[in-house]
TrEMBL record:
<keyword id="KW-0812">Transmembrane</keyword>
<keyword id="KW-0472">Membrane</keyword>
<keyword id="KW-1133">Transmembrane helix</keyword>
<protein>
    <recommendedName>
        <fullName>AB hydrolase-1 domain-containing protein</fullName>
    </recommendedName>
</protein>
<feature type="transmembrane region" description="Helical">
    <location>
        <begin position="7"/>
        <end position="27"/>
    </location>
</feature>
<dbReference type="InterPro" id="IPR029058">
    <property type="entry name" value="AB_hydrolase_fold"/>
</dbReference>
Length: 339
């Protein structure tokens, strides 16, 4: 009997392991530049290109459509396009956003950027030997002490490299990584930035889920699994603080930042939009119950919390664009993004 149970457990583990390798390695869309070029060539579209930036020892890779002629400044006005910054959920990478670079409406309106977050796609921490003379201590592990800070400033630093100056920025974040949209907002030039968090996971995880992530992240067994799956568990552990102890601080900082922006621009907003004022954070929830939980977490009506249809945002870029444009009423007329 014991032998049958043991064999059953081993068989289940083997089947599950095959499933994990299939999902996070063999079917994991981590595209090379050549593969992206071929995909877009077949559809007669301009392919986005990979670029990278180095932050605190990390090499951060991202996709950009800067080569698209629509991104060039308007010859009549000299104005550049606004920016759409895409941040994927845990376990994914920038390749999941390829449909955004194919969408003609989005490419006509935006300079689009999709980042590989730490541990995913082409973003990694190169192994280096420390000589003890570094100005800043070197990170020893990919999800080490600096990972939280670096994750927060990635949008700001990439936008700087992409020559964003006074142009409007719209950040899109999703799922377990949703609150990174609020974190990124807190680090940027706030008056021109809005973050859209689609179906964000805002509540702390169950203890069983946390223990599972810690188990998979343990070096004793992590070698059995593909990088993307292990990185997902480490990323979830990193994000747990944002949904736990750090959540109140995160929301309070966002409230303070938005209030300061509104005070500075109050005269411009007064009397406009039927009493609606500046809003910078948008929580896009899939049902009324989750909406109420977020409203309770925020504690005020300061940010926008909406119930929307549940869709796969990676394959429905037009849906995301429509939601962004619908909420431009919370932006000054002169800065509103339009089709």
């Amino acid at each position: 009997m014991l032998k049958k149970i043991t064999l059953g457990i081993l068989a289940f583990f083997f089947i599950w392991l095959v499933f994990i390798w299939t999902k996070y390695h063999f079917l994991y869309p981590s595209y090379s530049q050549e593969e992206i070029n071929n995909i877009f060539k077949k559809e007669n579209l301009k392919a986005p290109v990979y670029d990278s930036i180095h932050l605190r020892g990390y090499t951060i890779r991202y996709l950009t459509n800067r080569g698209n002629e629509n991104v060039s400044p308007n010859p009549a006005t000299g104005r550049k396009k606004p920016y759409l910054f895409l941040m994927h959920d845990s376990g994914k990478n920038s390749g999941y956003f390829l449909d955004y670079f194919k969408n003609k409406n989005i490419n006509k309106i935006f300079h689009v950027i999709a980042v590989d977050r730490i541990g995913f796609g082409g973003t990694y921490l190169p192994k280096r030997e420390s000589n003890g003379n570094e100005i800043l201590p070197m990170e020893k592990e990919e999800f080490g002490e600096k990972a939280d800070y670096v994750s927060s400033i990635i949008p700001k630093e990439i936008l700087k490299q992409e020559r964003q100056h006074i142009e409007e920025v719209r950040i899109v974040a999703n799922g377990c990584s949703g609150l990174l949209g609020a974190e990124a907002f807190n680090w940027m030039d706030l008056s021109i930035v809005k973050s859209f968090m689609f179906y964000p996971e805002t509540e702390p995880r169950f203890i069983g889920s946390v223990l599972f992530s810690k188990l998979i992240s343990n070096p004793v067994i992590s070698f059995l699994f593909p990088r993307a799956f292990v990185s997902k568990q480490k990323d979830l552990l990193l994000l747990d603080n944002m949904k736990g102890k750090g959540r109140e601080r995160l929301i309070d900082n966002a409230k303070y930042s938005e209030d300061k922006n509104f005070e500075r621009e109050e005269n411009l907003y007064s009397g406009h939009y039927g009493g609606k004022k500046l809003k910078s954070l948008f929580f896009m929830m899939s049902d009324k119950n989750k909406k109420e939980k977020v409203e309770k977490m925020i504690g005020t009506g300061q940010f926008s919390v909406q119930v929307i249809d549940k869709v796969d945002i990676y394959t429905q870029p037009q849906f995301v664009l429509d939601k962004i444009l619908e909420n431009e009423i919370y932006t000054l007329d002169i800065n509103q993004i339009k089709k």
